[in-house]
Specification:
heterodimer; A: mainly alpha; B: alpha+beta; Beta Polymerase, domain 2; two-stranded antiparallel sheet; 6 strands; 14% strand
Chain lengths: 81, 157
């Protein structure tokens, strides 16, 4: 799965400094009121399997993680590294 | 179903407050409330699983228009570790035992308040992502770490 926010370097790679393009995005977000931030942030697209039932529950997070790895398409990114 | 929006977040906040239910926004939805610019599909709520609170949760969630069967209500009442609700006006994930967070009370003490929304501390959001260690979490972590540094720089931690 591609991350739309992939800078040329990460904080770890750059010794703890924040990549300028991320800093610009954080600054821009800080200027927006919360309702606007949320309008940009929450999206809805169909996710196969995950969105196919109205209710799902698990006795443990480990059980949920195993279910994700067994049932969900890999490209959704729910498999553990 | 449309995406979760500010008005729905207000409805969650107000319904949970009316019932006195304790919860915290967690995950990327929590980070977004803290100012993190990114996208997500899910509203994740870390919930206190004490019996009194889970009863309050059931009432709050039902009042929002979720169509809960008696069996589903019973699962919320006993604080089953992870519950996905897609039977209401928007999707909600209820998390009673998140990866990387020891207990609700500790997370509650560290919480941030954003326009009346109770939100997990950025350290807890990062800890849960680290512990979950999924592909999508690994992709988010560098940017979340940078955001935490940004919050520190701006005196917001």
């Amino acid at each position: 799965m591609l991350n739309e926010h992939s800078p040329r370097s990460t904080p770890q790679e750059s010794g703890g400094t924040i990549p300028q393009e991320w800093r610009d995005e954080f600054d821009a977000a800080a200027r927006r009121p919360l309702p606007t931030r949320m309008r940009y942030a929450f999206i809805k697209t169909y996710r196969p399997v995950l969105d196919d039932v109205k209710y799902r529950s698990f006795e443990s997070m480990a059980e949920y993680r195993r279910w994700c790895e067994r049932e969900l398409p890999e490209w959704l990114g729910y498999a553990r590294v | 179903m449309p995406a979760f929006d500010y008005k729905q977040a207000q409805e969650v906040r107000d319904a949970f407050a009316r019932e006195g239910a304790r919860y915290l926004f967690l995950g990327k939805s929590g980070a977004i409330l803290l100012g993190f610019p990114d996208t997500t599909q899910d509203a994740d709520l870390l919930c206190d699983r004490s019996p009194d609170n889970t009863e309050r949760l059931v009432r709050a969630i039902a009042s929002l228009g979720f169509d809960l069967t008696p069996e589903q209500q019973a699962e919320i009442r006993r604080g089953k570790d992870f519950i996905q609700l897609k039977n209401g006006p928007f999707d909600l994930d209820l998390i009673f035992a998140p990866d990387g967070i020891e207990g609700f009370d500790d997370a509650w003490k560290r919480r941030a308040d954003v326009d009346g929304f109770p939100v997990c501390h950025i350290d807890d959001i990062i800890a849960s992502k680290r512990a979950a260690n999924r592909v999508k979490d690994r992709e988010s972590l560098p940017r979340l770490l940078a955001f935490r540094e940004y919050l520190r720089e701006h005196g917001r931690l």
